[in-house]
Structures are given as structure tokens and as C-alpha cells.
Amino acid sequence: MARIMMTEKGTVLREFLLNNETTRIGRERINHIRIDNPTVSRFHAEIYRRGCCYSIEDKMSRNGTCVNGFPVENLCVLGDKDEIVIGESTLVFVLEISDFPEPLKPSSLDSRETVYILKDQE
Asked: Structure pTM?
């Protein structure tokens, strides 16, 4: 499962599991990730989970949201170790390997053989 680490000067202050399809971030108490700082809007941003993919959207906040130094203007796909800046707070997105589906197993067919697929004849 993916998680968010709230950091300050390289030290992890808190960790949040992203176990909802939508995770709200902001200053208001009802947010999943609450950042009590006046530079953070009441409802600042949302992280969306679709399968094993995560993205973030700024919710028209006053001070904006940045990912790896770039402002989030629409949906921004998140990758492992992406740095999210919300107000004066830095969050690090961590994507666990277990979030990805199992790779397909190789076929038992020998690649040196020719396989013929015949169409059924009526």
C-alpha cells in the first residue's frame, strides 16, 4: 500500500497510509491528512487511487501544490519518492512494490517450436 511521509529537514514526522480511493489533504479537521498551518488551505489537495496508480490534484488552494518542484495544474501522476510541497509542508509519496500486480508467468511453450493455431472448420 502506498503512503505519505510528512518530513521536515529530512526527518519523518508522521506517516499516513493511502488506503482510501480519495485522500483529502488540508487544514480542516475532516481531512484524512491534516496540516495545521496557515499556508495550507482548508481543503488543499486530493490524492486519488485507481488500481495501483496514484495521482494528486490541487483543489484551487491559495498557495498551490507542487510535485518535484513543478506546480500541479491538473491531475499529476505520482511516482515513488515524489516530493509534494503543500504550503510550507513537505510530503514524500512512497509506493510499495506490493501495490503492483504479479507479473505474468512465461508460457510453457518452447520458443524453438512452431505453434499452429487452426481455425475450426464447419
From this structure: 0.78
